[in-house]
Amino acid sequence: MVGTAVLQVLRQGVWASLTGGCFLDPQLGAFANCVRLYVWLFLLGLPLGLYSALPPSPAVAALYCGLVAAFFGAVKAVTFRLHARLDRGGSEGDPEGGAAALLPPPQP
After folding, report:
1. Is 43 helix (H, G, I), strand (E, B) or coil?
2. What does the pLDDT look like over 7-41, one tens digit per residue?
3. What is the dihedral of CA 79, 82, 83, 85, to 10 degrees?
4. 94 and 100 in contact (C-beta within 8 Å)?
5. Rounded CA separation 9/4 (Å)
6. What is the CA radius of gyration of the chain?
7. 50-98: per-residue pLDDT in tens?
8. Within 10 Å of residue 16's Cβ, how many Cβ atoms?
């Protein structure tokens, strides 16, 4: 019991802190872990790639800021749309508010 708690703290706390947030959460599915990994790789690789490909200048810094702002804006828009779709209250659809709420209502 104590050993698994220590391993969990090491994996999700210490390892995530050392790698900037990259860890695989066993409670999440493969899709969520893949998305988390690719987002982490994008946010890690973008400044390194820009620095390697382009000379450092204020224009490159502005390009980086714009790309990161567009990325976070897209994530925010998708999150907003999913919340708007799944958080609708009502008696129809999935009572737990799962993915079935995304489907159109059945035809009579």
Report:
1. helix
2. 777 766 776 677 676 777 778 788 888 888 888 88
3. 160
4. yes
5. 9
6. 20
7. 989 999 999 999 999 999 999 999 999 999 998 888 887 554 555 555 5
8. 14
